[in-house]
Write a structure and sequence with these properties.
The chain is α+β, with helices and mostly antiparallel strands. The protein is built from 9 helices and 7 strands; from the N terminus they run H-H-H-H-H-H-H-H-H-E-E-E-E-E-E-E. The protein has a 5-stranded antiparallel beta sheet with strand order 6-5-4-3-7. Residues 43-274 form the BAR domain.
Length: 378
């Protein structure tokens, strides 16, 4: 068998050192430039050295841009707090949605709206009372309606996020971020130029001119970006108008839903008021008084007498009952006695109603009557 000769090659340890050495992030000249900028900054802050002054228009745009940046930094989280006011629920929602994304579940958990929580409570006890009960049926109807309002509020959250939060977040993450970077670069180039200008006798003229050109170029870029941002009022106003439109749509929808609930409640109130009165019939109570347990007799509880005046009323329109007698001293006011049923025409203000009693009509104080069927909403 032929023998195989293995040739050994020697490896220079310096080559291994070069391979394992981490890459240098900054050159020596770059490090020197940073030291020169730091030196210039210290001279301006501590020694009172005067740097290159920027124009007042540039500084004014810079201040306005800083205001917009602060506005978005505060406005975006406050808008989320407006849509989701409970911080504990908000934190829980973010945690659950994060876990859903980690697990690959596409469906996210919705924020528990206050109307939905109140509706759940009413539905629970409405089912417990049963639909046969007028109060139970009203609870069921109101609980379902509040769930519809909660769904409208969910739609408001989606709408505001798409038309208001996302555009502002994009503005914050793109244009403002780029302007912030450009302004930082302007300040860096200015420090470099001012340092070289201060040492003009020891630095070549070409190097000083190059630093000036870089400073002017970076300043023009930042100035142009700030100008575009501040002049773009149309888009900014369009975003604000979208928020107003989303709020208006929600309140219109909620008003329509609650108006239907109000009509339903009025009908239930009228039907309950016109139901025939049910009289209480006491049961027999067995009395055992002898030691042998023999029944001596039965005791009948006396019947409860209830005035039937209210049961004869047909409350099919807004009306009230007089709790006190009112004898006016001025023309245009309605005279009535305690117990009279007055038909309500309208509410003049928080203190006075207008109504009719028989063939008479006029004004009377709110505190003198007890409303049986309220006036419809305007």
């Amino acid at each position: 068998m032929a023998s195989v000769r293995v040739r050994r090659t020697s490896i220079d340890p310096r080559a291994l050192l070069c391979v394992s050495r981490p890459p240098v992030k900054m050159s020596v000249s770059g490090m020197k430039k940073q030291l020169h900028k730091a030196n210039q900054l210290l001279n301006e802050k501590l020694m009172g050295a005067e740097g290159t002054k920027l124009e007042e228009d540039f500084l004014k745009m810079q201040r306005s841009t800083a205001v917009i940046h602060s506005l978005l930094t505060e406005l975006l989280p406050k808008t989320t707090e407006f849509l989701q006011p409970n911080p504990a629920d908000r934190t829980k929602l973010n945690l659950l949605n994060t876990m859903s994304r980690i697990r690959g579940q596409g469906k996210s958990v919705g924020y528990p709206q206050t109307e939905g929580i109140l509706g759940d409570c009413m539905l629970q006890y409405g089912h417990a009372l049963g639909a046969a009960s007028e109060f139970g049926g009203a609870l069921l109807g109101m609980g379902e309606t509040l769930h519809q309002v909660a769904q409208a509020r969910d739609a408001l959250g989606v709408n505001v996020k798409c038309t208001f939060i996302d555009p502002l977040q994009d503005l914050h993450d793109t244009e403002l971020k780029e302007i912030k970077y450009q302004l930082k670069k302007v300040n860096s180039q200015r420090l470099d130029f001012d340092y070289k200008k201060r040492r003009s006798g020891k630095i070549p003229a070409g190097e000083l001119q190059q630093a000036w050109r870089k400073f002017v170029t970076s300043k023009e870029l930042a100035e142009r970006s700030m100008f575009v941002l501040l002049q773009n009022d149309v888009d900014h106003l369009r975003i604000l108008a979208a928020l107003v439109t989303a709020l208006l749509d929600f309140h219109r929808s909620a008003h329509h839903i609650l108006l239907g609930l109000h009509g339903n409640m009025q009908a239930r109130l009228t039907a309950a008021s016109n139901k025939p009165e049910r009289r209480f019939r006491p049961g027999k109570i067995r009395i055992r008084s002898e030691p042998n347990g023999r029944c001596v007799g039965f005791f009948h509880q006396p019947p409860v007498t209830v005035s039937s005046a209210d049961s004869k009323l047909v409350l099919d329109q807004p009306c009230c009952r007089a709790t006190y007698s009112f004898h006016p001293n001025q023309e245009g006011e309605l005279d009535f006695s305690e117990g009279d049923i007055i038909v309500l025409t309208k509410q003049v203000d928080v203190n006075w109603y207008e109504g009719t009693l028989g063939s008479q009509s006029g004004l009377f104080p709110v505190c003198y009557v007890d409303v049986l069927v309220p006036l419809p909403l305007p």
